[in-house]
């Protein structure tokens, strides 16, 4: 009996149902990521929270990272936010601090030093949320715009809320797209549930 015929054997009925269920679940989740993540907010907020990504050993931002920071720059220049909180960990290449690199990029584009807060301890989404909340204890900002890639927006908002932020959360996503976004979108599905269970 051929392999494809085996899958249609009655004793594999449970497997087929499980496979269909998981496939439909993934499709629904991806649809939510797209609907929630792609549209940019028109609302004003106190601060933009930028999730870090790859930084090269010389401090240059990778395209993915620059796309996020450029979006935050646009929000600041348009007057939608007063401050920008850039958060990341230590880069994989020579451990260059992502927060420092993102802040330097914004300063080079004319954003004043007083408007940019660099966090180099935000090695993942949860730690970024925790670090922002710790910093925000002295500022009491109640409205934020999270900035990342579209597929990362839903998890970021969820974790920020779960970490204890009680204000309004809006979002804006990077305008840079490439084929790796497909992989990022698919990886985001298990990542969301991992964070939901672990944190």
Quick summary of this structure?
By secondary structure, the chain is of the alpha/beta class. The protein is about 50% helix and about 15% strand.
Give the class from helix and strand content and strand pairing: alpha/beta
Please give the order of strands in the largest beta sheet.
Answer: 3-2-1-4-5
Order of helical and strand elements:
HHEHEHEHEHEH
Strand content: 5-15%
Largest sheet report = 5 strands, parallel
- What would CATH call the homologous superfamily? HUPs
Amount of helix: 40-55%
The name of the CATH topology is Rossmann fold
The total domain count is 1
Number of E strands: 5
Distance between the termini: 46 Å
| Helical run tally | 7
Residue ranges: pLDDT <50 for 5 or more in a row?
A: none
In the CATH scheme, the class would be: Alpha Beta
* Structural Rg: 19 Å
From the coordinates shown, what is the CATH architecture?
3-Layer(aba) Sandwich
What is the general shape?
globular
